[in-house]
Amino acid sequence: MSEKVRFPSVVGPALAGVIDLPEGEIRGWGLFAHGFTLGKESPAASRVCKQLAREGIGMLRFDNLGIGDSEGDWGDGSFTVKVQDTVRAAAFMAERGTPVDLLVGHSWGGAAAIAAACEIVGLRALATIAAPVDPSHVERQYDSVLDRVLSDGAHEWFVGGRTLVLKRAFVEDVRRAHLRDRIGEVDLPLLVAHSPTDSTVDISNAAEIFQEARHPRSFISLEGADHLLTARGQAQRAAHIISAWADQYLDEPRPQ
């Protein structure tokens, strides 16, 4: 069971989301931040959220600006907007009476989740999957058009079967993002999940995040998983691990 929702981005356009409703006893509610250009229907987002919902944790997953069913221009998004829209999504969940207990971020969304966590009131636990320690790690994905973007102010970029417009302000915002400064500020239980065979974001990123994080912190190796969690059963396995890890924190009094 799922519910389609819409809420405004911090820059105005409507963002499209899906809430995977919890089955059985409701253990809590969560929010998923998807990867760089992926969207709410990507394997990591949809499969992780559906599995968490099967285990009693209702999850909101939403398309970022200009992605999937969301309105707006992707090039106006950037890292700062992604972080702020993650906070806005949590506020939307609180407004509907289902405040977020668990924040999960995949890949670039994991970096955004770390940056957003301190601003989400009442959050109990944070989990990252295959997250880079430096948001500018994504620059290698668009390095073929980077010079044109910086010289012309914007340039088309073909990725994932579609054309996006990458803007200079986007690139500059990503370069200004200093996630390492934020990791130690997160006063929440943190689970860092990463595959040792991830060829997109090396597992050394997980080591750095874990090292910078406060206790309680945990690390889980997603043996056999690829970066996008497309291999059969890997997304569900990651969700099951997150569910079991979060269980002790979902029963605690909500932070004020």
Automatic annotation (TrEMBL):
Hydrolase listed as a keyword: yes
One Gene Ontology MF term: hydrolase activity
Residue runs in coiled coils: none
Protein name per Swiss-Prot or TrEMBL: Alpha/beta fold hydrolase
Keywords: Hydrolase
Entry keyword Hydrolase: yes
Residue intervals of the AB hydrolase-1 domain: 31-230
InterPro entries per the UniProt record, alphabetical: AB_hydrolase_1, AB_hydrolase_fold, MAG_DAG_Lipase
Entry-linked Pfam families: Abhydrolase_6
Organism whose genome encodes this protein: Streptomyces rectiviolaceus
Segment forming the signal sequence: none
